[in-house]
TrEMBL record:
A Pfam family per the record: MFS_1
Keyword NADP in annotation: no
Name by which UniProt lists this protein: Major facilitator superfamily (MFS) profile domain-containing protein
Organism from which the protein derives: Polarella glacialis
Family membership noted in the UniProt record: Belongs to the major facilitator superfamily. Spinster (TC 2.A.1.49) family.
Ranges of residues in domain Major facilitator superfamily (MFS) profile: 4-412
């Protein structure tokens, strides 16, 4: 079990690299390649949408084929795409690289979900998934630091090489728990396999708690996608690339620590209140995150003299806002369905919720800032435009997210007995 957790945690570094590196280069891409905020938002959407749309494919593969082999190949291909990004010189070449990277990075979530859910008992799921999120956010912070201290092309080369090395590490040291085990797909014709997958999907969507998680994810993914413009916002009123990189690194460390804490607190609250603990956890982290984010986006003066205040608020925001995924979402995904459907449930959540966030997050910030709020490259009103756009695209979606997660108080008590009965019937 320990070796599985270690390798999946290291593999989650890949997801963090992709999430942390691209937003860190927005200002450089605007300066060197003359990308506008709308174009940067479109590029962010393309990568995120490719990841979300392909998640269904990877989810089916994770439930049906040898996961170690799939993991190694997808990680190696992501490394090649990251290396290739260092050579782009136009919008469309960057777009194709973002799409390809998004496709391959999507493999990590459903595969790690199914592996960890198999290896870890129910009362330790939060901590286990918190460890994965810790690794992801830590690598994202490292990627932001690289982009701040090196040229953006060099940062992509370093991260691409590191990702290739990680795929070799997984191939060498990760136990092959599927070796010699038929996972079902090899015995079925294509039509039979598709029928099996359709049955899994139908069963997943019959879970009311999954629908509540999905509704929360649909609106909750929008703010995180929108915040890819936060580095550009801080640079707009005078912070240097190094200063912003340091602040983003602090936020990344806060997110890493908060993810582990969220996983632990989720397990504690679930033990004390099995039917309501994780729902309370979601309400707490959403409320805290909204409150703290008001400081860097609205309450603090737009001045580099307040560097320490911005850094502290970003660290605190990272710490308190990241408890949902490890402490609520992933443990509930693991509990609600049969082991053969664990990749499927996370894949469909990512496909629907993540796609909505990709379309309505960063692209909406870019469009609002440029078309509605008066953003102009080199203009004097850019900080205000970005601030207002970010506030609109974070506070309103998170308020709706709070309502959606509150529904789990009512749905979970009905779904848990059904899930246990299904697992008994299916063996």
């Amino acid at each position: 079990m320990a070796s599985i957790q270690l390798c999946t945690a290291l593999a989650n570094l890949v997801d963090g690299i992709d999430l942390g590196l691209f937003p860190s280069t927005f200002k450089y891409l605007e300066t060197e390649l003359h990308f506008t905020p709308a174009e940067l938002g479109m590029l962010s959407m393309m990568g995120s949408l490719a990841s979300c749309l392909s998640s269904v494919i990877w989810g089916c593969i994770a439930d049906s084929y040898n996961r170690k082999r799939v993991f190694v190949v997808s990680t190696a291909m992501l490394g090649l795409m990251t290396l290739g990004t260092s050579r782009v010189d136009s919008f469309w070449s960057m777009a194709w690289m973002r799409i390809a990277a998004g496709f391959f990075v999507a493999a990590a979530l459903p595969i790690t979900q199914s592996l960890v859910a198999e290896a870890v008992p129910k009362n330790g799921l939060g901590v286990a998934f918190g460890t994965l999120a810790f690794a992801s956010h830590l690598s994202g912070a490292g990627a932001a630091q690289l982009a701040a201290r090196l040229s953006w092309r060099t940062a992509y080369r370093v991260m691409g090489t590191g990702t290739l090395g990680l795929s070799l590490f997984i191939w060498t040291f990760m136990p092959d728990v599927d070796a010699g085990v038929s996972r079902g797909a090899s015995k079925l014709s294509l039509r039979e396999w598709l029928n099996v997958e359709a049955t899994k999907v139908r069963m997943v969507f019959q879970k009311r708690t999954f629908l509540a998680l999905l509704a929360g994810g649909i609106v909750g993914c929008v703010p995180w996608n929108a915040l890819s413009f936060s580095m550009m916002y801080f640079q707009s009123f005078g912070f240097s690339a190094t200063d912003v990189g340091n602040m983003m690194a602090l936020q990344g460390v806060g997110r890493a620590m908060g993810s582990y804490m969220g996983g632990y607190l989720g397990d504690v609250l679930a033990a004390k209140s099995p039917l309501h603990g994780r729902a309370f956890m979601a309400q707490i982290t959403i409320s805290f995150g909204m409150l703290v984010l008001l400081f860097p986006l609205y309450l603090l003066p737009w001045s580099t003299e307040y560097y320490n205040s911005y850094a502290a608020s970003l660290f605190l925001f990272g710490f308190v806002s990241t408890w949902c995924n490890p402490g609520v979402d992933r443990p509930l995904w693991a509990e609600l369905v049969h082991p053969d459907s664990r990749g499927t449930i996370v894949a469909w959540w990512t496909f629907i919720a993540g796609s909505f966030g990709s379309i309505c997050g960063a692209p909406l910030v870019g469009w609002l800032a440029q078309a509605v709020l008066g953003y102009r490259p080199g203009g004097g009103q850019n900080t205000e435009a970005l601030s207002e756009a970010l506030l609109l695209c974070t506070m309103l979606p998170w308020a709706l997210c709070f309502v959606a997660y509150s529904a789990i108080h009512c749905t979970y008590q009905f779904d848990v007995p059904q899930a246990k009965q299904k697992k008994v019937e299916q063996g």
